[in-house]
Specification:
This is N-acetylneuraminate lyase. The protein is of the alpha/beta class and 293 residues long. The protein is built from twelve helices and eight strands. It has a single domain (6-226), classed as TIM Barrel, CATH 3.20.20.70. 6,7,8,9-tetrahydroxy-5-methylcarboxamido-2-oxononanoic acid binds next to strand 8 and helix 10.
């Protein structure tokens, strides 16, 4: 059954001055986004720098989010993707006990597994985690491309309730939405949210929602009301900012933008390096020009 609609920030992981996961900063960030009307959160994804965190840090960050959403209607989806199935299952077990509404997983990466192995992985997760599972399609980073027939096999499993489509392939997105009306298909590229909603998407997970949630909540509402021209103005503003983020590094740029808004989440963990002064200035000016400050 389709149950996810609206804007889901893929939360950053805030760090304190010593580089430790900072639960207070995480909770402030969650509260800011809730005030702006988001439907829920995606925790532990790429934006969260998850593959630069230890298992304990991933669990701690999720617990901070669960505490902040307590008493609200926000749904939390936790990415449990990691290299080994057993470790993914351990994160899934923790996420279930923490009270998330679904888990998600990037396909196990680095080693070139075959599609049979990916399918076995997702079915194992769906059966053993006792949680709804959302596939994470991100070919540019995982190197894994799910073809139509692969998705069909995966979607036969009722516990696999949807997919986060972090791909520019709108042809595949449109077909998925038509063919699987009961599945939750999230667009995972913020810069094409308008295009995705125009082919029927109703939910989005994105890193730039951390600091542009208000813009995207309005954009989604306008699209739902059929006001595409007005929505396009917002998408255009957002895309001018996203263009700069893509040039300076998206996750570092998201954290820099949050800092400009008064939500200091620290720097991205090394090997990421901080933005240069020139990059910071360029980002600041673009945020200012596009109503983000
Ligand atoms: C994640 O796991 O945090 C995400 O995939 C969030 C989605 C983002 N995708 C990537 C690859 O970073 O929000 C998008 C993306 O940053 C944005 O569209 C700019 O390309």
């Amino acid at each position: 059954m389709k149950e996810y609609r609206g804007i889901f920030p893929a939360l950053v992981t805030p760090f304190d001055e010593k580089g430790r996961v900072d639960a207070d900063r995480m909770q402030r960030l969650v509260e800011k986004n809730l005030r702006q009307g988001v439907a829920g959160f995606y925790v532990g994804g790429s934006t969260a720098e998850s593959y630069l965190l230890s298992m304990d840090e991933r669990k701690y960050a999720l617990e901070a989010v669960m505490e902040a959403v307590q008493g609200t209607e926000a749904s939390v989806i936790a990415n449990v993707g990691v290299f080994a199935t057993e470790h993914g299952l351990a994160l899934a077990d923790h996420a279930r006990r923490a009270g998330v509404s679904a888990i998600s997983s990037v396909p196990p990466f680095y080693f070139p597994f075959c599609m049979e192995e990916y399918i076995h992985y997702y079915n194992t997760l769906a059966e053993r985690a006792q949680m709804p599972v959302i596939l994470y399609n991100i070919p540019a980073m995982s190197g894994v491309t799910f073809k139509k027939e692969d998705i069909q096999r995966l979607f036969e499993n009722e516990n696999i309730i949807g997919m986060k489509h972090t791909s520019y392939d709108l042809f595949q997105l449109q077909q998925l939405i038509q063919e699987y009306p009961e599945k939750n298909i999230f667009i995972g590229h913020d810069e094409i949210l308008l295009c995705a909603f125009s082919v029927g998407a109703e939910a989005a997970i994105g890193s730039t929602f951390n600091f542009m949630a208000e813009k995207f909540v309005r954009l989604a509402k306008l699209m739902n009301e059929g006001k595409q021209r007005e929505a396009l103005k917002l998408q255009d503003q957002a895309n001018r900012v996203i263009q700069v983020l893509c040039e300076v590094g998206v996750f570092k740029g998201v954290k820099a933008a949050l800092k400009f808004q008064g939500y200091d989440c620290g720097l991205c963990r090394e090997p990421f390096l901080p933005l240069s002064k020139r990059e910071e200035r360029r980002l600041y000016e673009t945020l200012l020009e596009n109503d983000c400050l």
